[in-house]
Write a structure and sequence with these properties.
By secondary structure, the chain is of the alpha/beta class. The chain has helices at 14-25, 32-40, 44-51, 53-63, 83-92, 102-109, 116-120, 123-140, 151-161; strands at 3-7, 28-31, 71-74, 93-99, 143-146. It has a single domain, classed as P-loop containing nucleotide triphosphate hydrolases (Rossmann fold, 3-Layer(aba) Sandwich), CATH 3.40.50.300. The chain binds shikimate-3-phosphate. Shikimate-3-phosphate binds next to helix 7.
């Protein structure tokens, strides 16, 4: 099976759908953020604080190339925005955009101290970022699914659109 790279805004359900898909398809789940934290021995907020966001983007660019075969990769919300990272993902598999409404994402992420962008931006700023990024997720992905639906519906749509069943 080709890797599936789940992308979309923070809170759209990438990690959650990743877990469901990996169980259903009997393949490995890799969370790119967790992978980076392990490799670097630092948390995401520590990386942002110490080295800044551009450095974090270069780590995403580097580590996405290390994802094992036959896996579902839950990327971080900004990873696939970077054209280089997106290109690596498309080469190794299928990029799937989880298209969820801003209010749904925001409800899940507000006040999260583990997400630096949530900590340093207002709701209005995050909405602006969401609108800008949505166009880029659409452009950089091969499949997009309505992610406001029920989990089982989202999973079915991904499996069908990716031609896995
Ligand atoms: C980010 C999203 C986060 C994490 C980092 C930056 C972003 O991942 O990679 O905090 O730029 O949207 P999640 O989408 O899993 O929250």
């Amino acid at each position: 099976m080709k890797n599936l790279y789940l992308c979309g805004f923070m809170g759209c359900g990438k990690s959650h759908m990743g877990r469901m898909l990996s169980e259903r398809l009997h393949c490995t789940l890799v969370d790119l953020d967790a992978y980076i934290e392990e490799k670097e021995g630092m948390t995401i907020p520590e990386i942002f604080e110490k080295y800044g966001e551009p450095h974090f983007r270069s780590l995403e660019e580097k580590y996405i190339r290390e994802m094992p075969e036959n896996s579902i990769v839950a990327t971080g919300g900004g990873a696939i925005i970077n054209p280089v990272t997106a290109e690596s993902a498309r080469k190794a598999g299928v990029v799937v955009f989880l298209d969820a409404d801003f209010e749904l994402c925001y409800k899940r992420i507000k006040g999260d101290t583990h997400r630096p962008l949530v900590m340093k931006n207002t709701k209005e700023q995050l909405h602006e970022l969401f609108m800008k990024r949505r166009e880029i997720y659409l452009a950089h992905s091969e499949i997009s699914v309505n992610s406001n639906a029920k989990d089982t519906e989202i999973m079915k749509e991904i499996i069908t659109k990716a031609g896995l069943k």
